[in-house]
From TrEMBL:
Protein name as it appears in the record: J domain-containing protein
Transmembrane segments: none
PANTHER family: DNAJ HOMOLOG SUBFAMILY C MEMBER 12 (PTHR44500:SF1)
GO annotation, cellular component aspect: cytoplasm
Lineage of source species: Eukaryota, Metazoa, Chordata, Tunicata, Ascidiacea
Length: 150
């Protein structure tokens, strides 16, 4: 019944990468840095403007995101769950993992963009290669070089 309630509920599923402000390509060091920055901003003791319960809930989500994404095994499972497109929470999916693992074997979607945008073609690179091919020594010069005449 919990599964059915989890699927039918309209609760928004938390994206741990979004909570921390990073993406799937971030390494553990980047995740920890983002965690420290966010923790200073939303820590319940530092942030007196929000209600106590809301601040505690936000900080708990932040801690859970850090816990999952800094553990290599949990992070791999989280990425697998995230790519599945299921509308249930990661915790619910994890609790049912033994039953669902055999039914979740289809292709893994990769849908993230690189951090840096391409600046287009590098014209200097093309000019260098064409200039190099035009200035290659002829067979006669190579022959003289090999015979120690140059």
């Amino acid at each position: 019944m919990d599964f059915l309630n989890g699927v039918l509920s309209d609760d928004q599923v938390d994206d741990y990468y979004e909570i921390l402000g990073c993406n799937e390509l971030s390494n553990t060091e980047q995740i920890l840095t983002e965690y420290r920055i966010k923790a200073k901003q939303i820590h319940p003791d530092k942030n007196k403007t929000e209600s106590g319960l809301k601040a505690n809930a936000e900080f708990a989500k932040l801690q859970k995101a850090k816990e999952v994404l800094t553990n290599p095994k949990l992070r791999k499972e989280y990425n697998f769950w995230k790519s599945s497109g299921l509308s249930i929470s990661f915790e619910l999916w994890k609790s049912m993992q033994a039953q669902t693992k055999t039914t979740m074997h289809w292709a893994h979607k990769v849908k993230y963009n690189p951090m840096l945008e391409s600046t287009g073609e590098n014209k200097d690179c093309h000019q260098t290669s064409s200039t190099f091919s035009e200035n290659t020594p002829s067979e006669e010069i190579l022959k003289q070089f090999r015979n120690y005449k140059i």
